[in-house]
Amino acid sequence: MIEIPSDLHKDLVPLAFLLGSWAGAGVHDFPGSQKCNFGQEVTFGHDGRDFLEYHSHTWVLDKDGNKVRPLESESGFWRIDADRKVKVTLVRDDGVVEVWYGELADRKPQIDLATDAVLRSSGAPAYTGGKRLYGYVNSDLMWVGEKQTPEVELRPYLSAHLKKVVTPEEVERWAKALPDDMPDDGIAFFK
Fold this sequence. Notes:
The chain has one helix at 168-177, and strands spanning 20-28, 36-45, 52-61, 67-80, 85-92, 96-104, 110-120, 129-137, 140-148, 155-164. By secondary structure, it is mostly beta strands. Strand 5 and strand 6 (96-104) form a beta hairpin. The two termini are 21 Å apart. The mean pLDDT is 91.
């Protein structure tokens, strides 16, 4: 279920499906890097202004699913205009700044993005652009990222399946919202 906070800026309502903390795993595969599974934590938040604040941390997982080392981290801001055009500014831990443009699909929670500008600091890895697809599917957040470098044509390199993280505060809020006349055995609730 998608909840729309009462203090969410009205322009961001179409992006409400992104809000919250997400965690899950995916696959990293790009020429010149070792193919691996990775874990990811993503947070989309807001403070009432006309943007979502975004943070993502990924780490390499071993064959047993244990954290081995950090993989990538990025932070940024997501905006949407009245025509459903999405604008994202990201800063990555490797010294890359990206401006992404795309749009929210019609009648479904899916966003297609492509880089419009890439700025690299000295020492940052070769990178010329990318594409991303985000989708809200059966209450989960799924995404795939493509990237290109001067040596490698645009190709998928990261994809993940993330589940919404439920906080103790959310559980408490839901518990307080339960009706007082809930059946004691719980079974009648499902009949």
